[in-house]
Design a protein that fits this description.
mainly alpha; 11 helices; 0% strand
Length: 204
């Protein structure tokens, strides 16, 4: 799949048609799966780091509309390797000085959006705005999506434990659902931030 195909897929996703991107997701996973298994020695871990990497890929190129790399597959594989290194680190180190790990994960990836807030906002106001946006966005999700995302806050419970509870036929379907839910969450956070900013401007 060349850069032109990927560019078309990204453009479709930006217009609301996610089907080509989901196909790209499946094809890319099948292509790099052997390398991921060689890296992690675990199917579950391979699927997990792939889902994390594709979430970041979506945010960078669909939401933030950055320029695509020349080799998207190679780029995604590198992202997976980096995600694997991060997975091996202590969560305490990864989320240092942040009370809510999920809030850090979602909002850390939105610095570009937050940087656009007027300079008149104090740092405290910006943090409050982002927190409100996250809370409201989470409440907009379905119960199943909230369960998948909030599972990240529970260190004692693995994602796979939710497979039977939430009615997924296999683990791949579960991680695919988590990926889709995180996409929805990020998109809704952006939407809520824009609305909150508009409300603040009307009050000024």
């Amino acid at each position: 799949m060349d850069s032109i195909d990927v560019k078309h897929i990204i453009e479709c996703a930006q217009k609301g048609n996610e089907l080509p991107f989901n196909t790209f997701f499946d094809l890319t996973y099948k292509k790099i799966k052997p390398k991921l298994l060689s890296l992690t020695k675990s199917l579950d871990d391979s699927q997990e780091i792939f889902i994390i990497s594709m979430q970041k890929f979506w945010e960078r190129f669909v939401i933030n509309q950055e320029n695509l790399p020349h080799n998207s597959t190679g780029y995604i594989l590198t992202m997976c390797k980096n995600a694997w290194l991060m997975q091996k680190r202590s969560k305490k180190d990864t989320f240092i000085s942040v009370e809510n790990p999920l809030e850090y994960q979602v909002l850390k990836q939105q610095d570009t959006q937050v940087d656009g807030i007027e300079e008149s906002h104090t740092t405290e106001n910006i943090e409050l705005l982002r927190h409100k946006a996250l809370v409201q966005a989470l409440n907009m999700l379905s119960d199943k999506c909230r369960s998948l995302i909030e599972n990240e806050l529970n260190d004692d419970r693995k994602l796979k434990d939710l497979q039977e509870e939430l009615g997924f036929k296999n683990y791949q379907a579960l991680v695919q659902a988590k990926y889709n839910c995180k996409k929805r969450l990020v998109r809704k956070v952006y939407e809520v931030i824009e609305k909150l900013e508009e409300n603040q401007k009307t009050k000024m």
